[in-house]
Amino acid sequence: MSKPRETKPVPDTTDWKLKYRNSLLEIEIEEKRWREVERLLRRLVGRLCAAGLGQNAQLDDELTTLAAANRRNADAVELARLAESLTTAVVAVDESSALPRRMRPAAPQPSPVPASTRWDSTCAAVATLLERLKSAGDASVQGLMSELAIAATDAALAAVVTRAADLIHQRSETLARERLQAAAVLSEVTKRLEEMSRYLWESNSASRTQYDDTQTLNDTVMSHVRELTDEVSSATELKLLQSTVSARLESVANQVREFRAREQNRLTEFNGRAEHMRTRIADLERETEDLHCKLDLEKHGARLDPLTGVANRKSFDERFAQEVVRRTQGGSPAVVLLWDIDSFKIINDTYGHRAGDRVLQSVAGCFAAALRTADFVARIGGEEFAVLLIGLGLADAVNIANQLRTAVESLRFHFRGIPVRVTVSCGVTELLVGDALEAAFDRADAALYRAKDGGKNLCVAA
């Protein structure tokens, strides 16, 4: 009896297939994770390259190259080579620098400005502001400058600045009012122009209507004439012809009467508009004349010093420039007298600004009364005056200057019963052919300083 055949066990493939699938899944998950890590690292490399640009020219080249390779997903070999090159460049930069950037000592801070320097700078700035305001000839500016000269505390300086700000505000309001006045004048002129335009339009419209009406009348009359001619040619009875002619003539007469009535109405309207326009033109002429007078007064007032009544600095500068040009062109001689009231600050400090204002007015009145019509006097600063003598040489001008100086010294000036001695010093210079404006003024100013240094109450020629 034969043995039964042994059967081999069939291998179970389920286990290894499952393991294979699991392994593939794990590999895919791991590969995906590393791709995400690579993406994040490449983004980080790009941002670090961008952040590092601008620190060093050599490093900028390396970082730019590395960033470009990173954007195109270069392989590991190229990135490793670029990283090694970047490392070498960083080492070279570090060796050339004494200390790393973040470890370098901070730049030395500027030493604090001394309080005295800040005080002087502030006072100088305020003085510059007041000098610019002084050119308008306001007497209060000189008072502020005197207060600034003796200011020793912050409170005193703040008071000067506050008053200067108030003065600037007042002048700003004045300019604003002038702008509003100019706008009102412009609006009124615009209204008048619109009225004139309306009148012209109405006149033009009336002319067109008259032309059209005349043309219509002519066409109507000619039509009646043609019809009448045709009817006369075809008429066979005398009575019928007379009736026809009478009817046509009556129609023409009615047309003419209506036309004359319309013409009379148009004429009446035209005369009314013309009379109204004549009245408006007369009103405009009177308003224009009044406006010119007002502008002339304002212009004249803008050229006068409000305290003393003589010309201000702006007016003097214009006249001085004219005399320089005229002298350069071969005109008659002219001499500049530059005056300064002696010890004016002491008068202000001792008797007050009201006394100082009265001194300025008295000196200006003395100069104006003693000069000729052709001469020119102006207040050009706080206690400074300038005189232009036309048609005189230097010697004659010095004589007149001494006469003026003596006249001022002879003033019997009292303030609240207290006598106040007032004297002036003068620098004299002649305008030369080809002279420059600044050069002539500087010569007179230098001569004035020599008069001051010589003891005051003097006239010195340049």
Regions with little confidence, pLDDT below 50 for 5+ residues: 1-13, 98-107
Mean pLDDT: 75
Strand content: 5-15%
**Secondary-structure element pattern, one letter each:** HHHHHHHHEHHEEHEEEHE
How would you explain this protein's 3D organization?
There is one protein chain. The protein is α+β, with helices and mostly antiparallel strands. The protein has 3 domains: 16-98, no CATH class; 137-302; 313-461, Alpha-Beta Plaits. The protein has 12 helices and 7 strands. It has helices spanning 14-52, 57-71, 76-96, 115-134, 139-150, 154-234, 238-302, 313-328, 344-351, 353-370, 394-409, 437-453, and strands at 334-341, 376-379, 384-390, 413-415, 418-420, 424-430, 459-461. The strands form 2 sheets. Strands 2-3-1-6-7 form a 5-stranded mixed beta sheet, with helices on both faces. Strands 4-5 form a two-stranded antiparallel sheet. A hairpin with a 4-residue loop joins strand 2 and strand 3. The protein is flat, with a radius of gyration of 51 Å.
Topology:
Layout: H1 14-52, H2 57-71, H3 76-96, H4 115-134, H5 139-150, H6 154-234, H7 238-302, H8 313-328, E1 334-341, H9 344-351, H10 353-370, E2 376-379, E3 384-390, H11 394-409, E4 413-415, E5 418-420, E6 424-430, H12 437-453, E7 459-461
Parallel strand pairs: 6-7
Antiparallel strand pairs: 1-3, 1-6, 2-3, 4-5
Compact overview of the structure:
This protein is α+β, with helices and mostly antiparallel strands and 462 residues long. The chain has twelve helices and seven strands. Helix 6 runs antiparallel to helix 7.
